[in-house]
Design goal:
Blueprint: E1 8-14, E2 20-26, E3 36-41, E4 53-54, E5 65-70, E6 76-81, E7 84-91, E8 95-96, E9 100-101, E10 112-117, E11 123-129, E12 140-146, E13 157-158, E14 169-174, E15 180-185, E16 195-200, E17 214-215, E18 225-231, E19 237-243, E20 249-254
Length: about 260
């Protein structure tokens, strides 16, 4: 009901109740030639995911779109549209509104994606093709913007050298505990092209202070691309995309009790 043999599926986004999943579909028989946004809902009785359907108002055949996060009430989505961070509102009876870009000062690179707002609404995390600390050439790095009491977003800053390296870092996912951060990196020493790591925030007042990232190991990571790792709010399941061959598919894994 989610993965197809002909197309690709990646970038899963879960609602806080773990009952609705948005994701990217590419080259699916029911899609357009570009990246489209799909939705599937879980059957409350069986726990199985229902047949995925494309969201037409968020799937323009002439551009690439991807969901990156959804608000707690399910009414606001952050999404990627042709290298820019955008948002859309879900309205009663009319579906999702036309995506609008986030403020210009947040679009710091020539390409940015993977945006999410923390559970408490205080910070925005995203990946951008923009240099971080001590980086001579720009690569994909993770950045943060803080929201002040008036609702204004600060100029983005690097999440810090514990996470950003000379290689690619992307797909930040800050768990609702506001301390545990999952992300993917192509830095040397991993199992494949892109591996999932976890790090923990060392101080409640510091957004550049993180523990040494820990590779999630061969149970999660392969020789291919492993990315867009999201953990359900209750900590029981993780969802992510894996590209072991030429195409991405979506996977779920039950989290070990000691890792929740």
């Amino acid at each position: 009901t989610i993965n197809t043999s002909a197309g690709e599926e990646y970038n899963p986004v879960l609602t806080v109740d773990d009952q609705t999943m948005y994701f990217v579909g590419l080259n699916r028989e029911d899609g357009t030639p570009s990246e489209d946004i799909y939705v599937s809902r879980r059957d409350a009785r069986t726990g199985e995911w229902g047949a995925a359907r494309r969201i037409p108002e968020l799937s323009n055949p002439y551009r690439n779109e991807a969901p990156t996060s959804v608000s707690g009430d399910g009414r606001m989505m952050l999404l990627f549209v042709e290298g820019r961070m955008c948002f859309s509102q879900r309205t009663a009876g009319y579906g999702w509104t036309e995506p609008q870009p986030l403020p210009k000062h947040l679009q710091i690179g020539n390409w940015q994606a993977d945006a999410m707002i923390s559970a408490d609404g205080s910070v925005l995390l995203f990946a951008a093709n923009y240099p971080a600390e001590n980086e001579e050439k720009p690569s994909l790095n993770i950045f943060i913007s803080k929201r002040d009491e008036q609702g204004r977003w600060s100029q983005p800053f690097s999440i810090g050298p514990a996470i950003n390296t000379q290689a690619m870092e992307r797909s930040p996912y800050l768990h609702p505990d506001m301390k545990t951060l999952y992300f993917s990196s192509a830095k040397p020493g991993g199992y494949g092209e892109l591996d999932v790591y976890v790090t923990r925030r060392l101080s409640d007042t510091c957004w550049t202070c993180w523990s040494e990232p820990e590779n999630l190991g061969p149970t999660i990571n392969t020789q291919g691309r492993d990315c867009w790792y999201k953990v359900s709010a209750d900590g029981q399941y993780a969802y992510y995309a894996q590209k072991a061959g030429r195409m991405h598919d979506l996977y779920a894994i039950e989290m070990p009790v000691d890792k929740r």
